[in-house]
UniProtKB/TrEMBL annotation:
Localization in the cell: Cell membrane
One Pfam family this sequence matches: ABC_tran
Bilayer-crossing regions: 56-76, 82-103, 153-172, 193-216, 251-268, 274-295
Gene Ontology CC terms: plasma membrane
Keywords from the UniProt entry: ATP-binding, Cell membrane, Membrane, Nucleotide-binding, Transmembrane, Transmembrane helix, Transport
ABC transporter domain boundaries: 344-570
UniProt superkingdom: Bacteria
Keyword Transport: yes
Name assigned to this protein: ABC transporter domain-containing protein
Length: 570
């Protein structure tokens, strides 16, 4: 059994023993507090599913908790089985989360939109709870006459948590878990591997709302009274503090944070009244300043656990199972990708930033299987053009065609799924994963994973150390390896030799040449180093001042008078 599994198993056994012994060791009041802390822990874990896993901050998450709590309370108040009310609350909360996610998590939506929408939701639900007196009891709330037997509430809370945990482990061991991990680590790379950011974040937000409402439904009988505050802004702020204190991205962090702070604030509230909110605020500021990864993150870094144990953060990334095609005979070319015709066409593309006209009617056709270099002086618009091709920037006019299909309005992930790979000037990898895990994520998202060229095979067995700690040349090589196993038809490279020594650059150029020869992939490379261009390019396009100046072989281009003047500085 690996160390990661052993340590998780030991933690789980210790937690189960402690929780199993609690009813025998505690008198009813502390046991009720512990039950409430477990429900709050589940609530914080729900928030973690969106904030900790895909980076979506919800500042009104108590709305979902409140909907679950009111679901249970209204059902009991009307002699309907509590389970029916709880399920109704969970369905309603999930539906609302889906609507908010669809509106607020679009690729072109600002991150602040989600903050505003979730804030509005918590205010709205609290207001509805206040005003709809017939159902909610208004400001008095609803008294929830449960059995009064604390041990029953405690057992129910434990069973609910175990069921949620089992479902969660089942989800994260599959493709959604991998996608959450990819988005959490590097959104840009995730999108360029064809992962739909909107769908992934919306799914995590819906899961998060469902778990928060389950927590609310579980907490209702323990709280005894469900009033508008359970859906309000104060509880929404508190759960953010619990999770920040406990640490995001781990189940333990959510429960420890919620347990410590909620039980602490209960005793503190008895002692100093509502001043406890001030103490909570100070704790939050101190944690954000001195332990941004929360208590669990701090403990992990003190213990200095090997990165292979902590890097996956519970997501099943078993690099031993990297999906690769069988090694290809080096002399064999992919017939499918070397068919005649255009791989990529840029047709009359214009782009302006305000009064700055960056691209002014650029037209370039790249035949299938060609290696083309795009050169030009600084500020010519080369990077902008690559971003427009991949969907990172919108064009003002013109068209981008990939294998005869107009992709001008497609999102980044749709273009990636159509076969467009991108290598960035600053390597875009999953920094907090090992190199082998980087490859695992890339190959898992591939429609047809490709064999990895021999020069990159060392990464397959690179299980220790994080990708972020690799030297620049290795990070570039790793990014290229990820792109190659993912198997695009067209690869765009933005200054792939930037920051490399002369020898590293020349070796990179030879490697790219081999890759092009072996895979039949179309390569479009922005490059400044003329030696690399000469080694690599079958064709050179010179861009200057937003227009194509010359288009031809390296010899034709370097003989051109305007190129000598505009670019070679002659
Ligand atoms: N987001 C932006 N907002 C405003 N202007 C921009 C933006 N991005 C690029 N530009 C401008 O567009 C022009 C072209 O930039 P771009 O990075 O595409 O040039 P480049 O040919 O890649 O240059 P280099 O070789 O230096 O990387 C520059 O004048 C730049 O300042």
């Amino acid at each position: 059994m690996s160390r990661i599994k052993r340590s998780h198993l030991i933690t789980a056994i210790v937690a189960c023993l402690a929780l199993g012994a609690a009813p025998f060791l505690l008198v009813p009041y502390p046991l009720a507090l512990l039950t409430l802390a477990l429900a709050y822990g589940l609530f914080a874990f729900g928030l973690d599913l969106t904030w900790g896993r895909t980076g979506v901050v919800s500042i009104g998450h108590a709305a979902f908790f409140g909907i679950g709590a009111y679901g249970s309370a209204i059902a009991i108040d009307n002699d309907i089985p509590m389970l029916v009310g709880a399920v109704g609350g969970v369905v309603l909360a999930t539906l609302m989360a889906w609507i908010i996610g669809v509106i607020g998590l679009g690729d072109k939506t600002l991150p602040s939109t989600m903050a505003i929408l979730t804030l509005a939701l918590t205010l709205l639900v609290e207001q509805v709870a206040l005003s709809w007196r017939g159902a909610t009891g208004g400001s008095n709330g609803i008294f929830v006459p449960g059995s009064g037997v604390v041990i029953e509430y405690y057992t129910t809370a434990l069973i609910v948590i175990i069921v949620v945990a089992v479902v969660w482990f089942w989800i994260i061991r599959g493709r959604w878990g991998r996608r959450f991990r990819a988005v959490q680590s590097n959104e840009k790379r995730a999108a360029h591997l064809g992962i739909n950011l909107h769908a992934t974040k919306t799914f995590s937000f819906c899961l998060s709302a469902a778990v928060a409402s389950i927590a609310g439904a579980t907490a209702a009988p323990v709280m005894g009274l469900v009033s508008p505050g359970v859906a309000g802004i104060i509880l929404s702020a508190q759960v953010l503090v619990w999770l920040a204190v406990g640490g995001r991205g781990s189940i333990a962090g959510a429960f420890i944070g919620a347990g410590l702070v909620s039980i602490g604030q209960q005793y503190l509230g008895d002692a100093i009244g509502s001043w406890y909110l001030l103490v909570l605020g100070v704790v939050f500021i101190l944690v954000v300043r001195f332990a941004p990864a929360g208590l669990t993150g701090a403990v992990r870094s003190i213990l200095r656990r090997p990165v292979t144990e902590s890097a996956a953060q519970g997501v099943h990334l078993d690099s031993a199972t990297i999906r690769l095609a069988a090694p290809r005979n080096p002399s064999e070319k992919l017939v499918a990708t070397t068919a005649a015709g255009s791989a990529l066409e840029v047709v009359g593309v214009t782009k302006s930033y305000g009064a700055t006209h960056v691209l002014r009617g650029v037209t370039i056709e790249v035949p299938n299987g060609e290696v083309m270099c795009l050169i030009g002086p600084n500020g010519a618009g080369k990077t902008t053009l690559l971003e427009i091709i991949t969907g990172g920037q919108a064009l003002n006019d013109g068209q981008i065609r990939l294998f005869d299909e107009d992709i001008s309005t497609w999102s980044i992930h749709a273009r990636a799924q159509a076969g467009l790979g991108m290598v960035f000037q600053i390597p875009s990898i999953f920094p907090d994963l090992t190199p082998a895990q980087n490859l695992q994520l890339a190959s898992a998202e591939a429609k047809n994973p490709a064999p990895l060229p021999e020069v990159y095979e060392r990464f397959l067995t690179s299980h220790s150390g994080l990708a972020v700690d690799l030297p620049l040349a290795d990070r570039r090589a790793l990014e290229m390896a990820m792109i190659l196993v993912w198997n695009p038809k067209v690869i765009l490279l933005d200054e792939p030799a930037a920051g490399l020594s002369h020898e590293e650059s020349m070796s990179l150029a030879r490697r790219l040449r081999t890759v092009a020869d072996q895979t039949g992939c179309t390569l479009v490379t922005v490059e400044h180093d003329m030696e690399i261009v000469r080694e690599l390019a079958e064709r050179v396009v010179v861009l200057a001042d937003g227009v194509v100046l010359v288009d031809g072989t390296m010899d034709e281009v370097s003989a051109h008078e305007s190129v000598k003047h505009a670019y070679l500085g002659v």
